[in-house]
Design goal:
10-stranded mixed beta sheet; about 260 residues; 7 helices
């Protein structure tokens, strides 16, 4: 998949990071300088429970600030995670590596020009729901998640302030088989969650629900779509490439190693 130069595109990184925070809001957000400390006690999403540095030059007192952040995570019963993006100060990365932290789960952020792509006309019959409870139930079923997560996921979805499209494809006999969450923030459309039930994959449902969400966002004025996908998810990357998504930047997570 084609890649954009992250070194020359920090304004885009900053914009997508800011939009992403609004599209997937954490319960608690605190700042230490330009470091954002995101915590959501009831939901395990790494994006909702991590430290994110937003200024490459903000590298003062790294050890002290990491320890302070770690105590906040401990108070929430969670181990500290740091999310590394192109905005992360290099001294912070160097410090974590030297201290034995582990880097894991590289994620690609992809963008697509909605004004230039052709979307199938037959997706118009999939209209978004505004029923958060129905969408959350479907999301948990499709992902195979613990039903106990329902209140926490409902809280996250309900807290999204920009207009959101909650898409669900249901099988008459089996119930929900695909879901997508599209958040429109002015000219940007964020696909924050897209999944097809494991036993219904390879049937075109991913493309069907994704194009429905993108068509909805484009009709509302969105000009650019973006999403995030784990870098080793080859089937998803093939689907997104088919629609013209290209790489904007990558991020990854760091956690304390056994000897850190």
């Amino acid at each position: 998949m084609p890649s954009a130069s992250t070194d020359q595109n920090l304004p885009l990184v900053r914009r997508l990071e800011a939009v992403g925070f609004r599209a997937w809001p954490a319960t608690s957000v605190q700042y230490d300088g330009s470091w954002q400390i995101r915590l959501s006690g009831g939901h395990p999403s790494k994006r909702l429970n991590c430290v994110v540095a937003l200024d490459p030059s903000d590298s003062r007192d790294i050890a002290v600030r990491l320890e302070k952040a770690a105590r906040k995570f401990e108070a929430h019963g969670r181990p500290i995670l740091v999310r590394e993006t192109p905005l992360t100060p290099k001294p912070l990365i160097d410090r974590m590596r030297a201290d034995g932290w582990e880097r894991f789960e590289e994620v690609m952020t992809l963008t697509c020009d909605l004004t230039a792509i052709e979307l199938p006309e037959d997706t118009l019959d999939h209209l978004p729901s505004h029923d958060v409870g129905r969408y959350v139930d479907a999301d948990l079923i499709v992902h195979g998640s613990d039903p106990a997560l329902k209140p926490a996921l409902a809280e996250v979805v309900s807290a999204i302030k920009p207009p959101s499209g909650l898409f669900v494809i249901e099988d008459p006999a089996e119930g929900p088989v695909a879901v997508a969450l599209c958040v429109q923030d002015n000219d940007l459309a964020s696909i924050m969650s897209l999944a097809v039930k494991a036993d219904h994959r390879q049937r075109g449902l991913g493309l069907e629900i994704l194009t429905a969400a993108l068509r909805w966002a484009r009709m509302r004025g969105a000009r650019t779509a973006w999403l995030q996908v784990v870098a080793d998810n080859a089937p998803a990357l093939a689907l997104y490439a088919k629609l013209g998504f290209v790489e904007a930047y990558r991020y990854a997570y760091w956690r304390k190693g056994a000897n850190a």
